Amino acid sequence: MSRTLPPLNALRAFEAAARLGSFKAAATELHVSQGAISQHVRQLEDWFGQPLFERHNRRVALTPAATAYLAEIGPAFDRIASATSRYGRGAARTRTVLRVSSVATFALRWLVPRLERFRQRHPQADVRVDTSNEPVDALREAYDVIIRGGPDTFYGYTMQPFLAEQRLPVCSPALPAHAPLAVPADLCRHTLLHASTLPRAWDDWLAAAGVPELAPAAALTLDHFYLTLQAALDGIGVAMGPTALVAEDLAAGRLVAPFPDLRLPSRSYCCYLPQHKAGDAIVQAFAQWLVEEGDAAGESRGS
């Protein structure tokens, strides 16, 4: 029985533009000009007899029919790529690029130190980690795995929490040795380290600790959470430490938590996976590995 198929080059251009939400990004991925993508999409729209994209100034949006169509053909493209990787010429040499987007502090202090364990388990995977604080639905580039706080819901993504989180003050052991930190009010003798990405972290903790009006000896604001943690390690002041990301420093004695029972609840770390990657074995393996590592980290700190 013969198959009714649209022009395959046009179909490939549509799938890339629809998945990435951009003709320019599709052109980059397929190594063609943006004009070629536009031409292929118009060819497919003529074949369908209806528009597939709503054109805006700097972006494109899928029509409802195109959204449904992408949900059908996206997994088909993934299966073709997977089968080609397994059975095509040079399959044994084929490597898979796994594109991961993570918030910077988590990548630096938790993900990267553990990545070698994933690589040993899946040596054929080349993991590329990019850092960003952009929300899942605002990213301009396509990723296989996105690590953000949550749980949240985004259209076109599945979500899996894998690591619980709380926040509490941490500092170098040299600080309380110099100026005691017996009660939260003692923070008035110290420098509080703030991260501009989480401007209310200290205010919320001080309110929960019963000293909302506390005035510290000094304050230092840095533009990333990981910089405040480094400043704490260097003895500059007291940082608001995410429990998952400072657990090893606390265990090794590089940091101390002067008020270990006063913890600020926080959002969990979650991985968000594009729904069209549901059949991708490496993507699913990475998500499962995150859950396993998160479970092990929780057990190691007794939570």
Automatic annotation (TrEMBL):
Keywords from the UniProt entry: DNA-binding, Transcription, Transcription regulation
InterPro entries assigned to the protein according to its UniProt record, in alphabetical order: LysR-type_TF_proteobact-type, LysR_HTH_N, LysR_subst-bd, WH-like_DNA-bd_sf, WH_DNA-bd_sf
Pfam families from the UniProt entry: HTH_1, LysR_substrate
CDD domains according to UniProt: PBP2_GcdR_TrpI_HvrB_AmpR_like (cd08432)
Start and end residues of each HTH lysR-type domain: 6-63
Alphabetized Gene3D superfamilies for the sequence: Periplasmic binding protein-like II, Winged helix-like DNA-binding domain superfamily/Winged helix DNA-binding domain
PANTHER family: HTH-TYPE TRANSCRIPTIONAL REGULATOR, HTH-TYPE TRANSCRIPTIONAL REGULATOR TRPI
Annotated family: Belongs to the LysR transcriptional regulatory family.
Protein name: Transcriptional regulator
UniProt source species: Cupriavidus malaysiensis
